[in-house]
């Protein structure tokens, strides 16, 4: 391995160890998208899905406590 590549790797490791979990997750996500591309690129949402999404965003959701979900679901 060349000296220059080794120095670059050491710099990247030093920077990576100083990242927060959120920053590291974002960096990983960016690198995956950079490598594979966006799998949703070029896709469009169906009109029915858009309408349902807009309806749900307008209607406030009800949060159900974990205990209540356990009672309902079992």
- For the record, the count of structural domains works out to 1
Q: Evaluate the radius of gyration.
A: 22 Å
- Counted by DSSP, the helix tally is 4
Shape, principal axes of CA atoms: flat
Number of strands: 0
Low-confidence stretches: none
Distance between the termini: 58 Å
Mean model confidence by pLDDT: 80
Q: Name the structural class.
A: mainly alpha
Strand content: under 5%
N-to-C series of helices and strands: HHHH
Q: How much helicity do the residues have?
A: 55-70%
Main beta-sheet annotation: none
Itemize the secondary structure elements and their pairings.
Layout: H1 3-17, H2 21-36, H3 47-58, H4 66-73
Describe the structure.
- This protein has 74 residues and is mostly helical.
- It has one domain.
- It is built from four helices and no strands.
- The longest helix is centred in the middle third of the chain and has 16 residues, at 21-36.
- The mean pLDDT is 80.
Short description:
With 74 residues, the chain is an all-alpha fold. The protein is 69% helix and 0% strand. The termini are far apart.
Provide key terms for this protein:
single chain, 4 helices, 69% helix, 74 residues, 0% strand
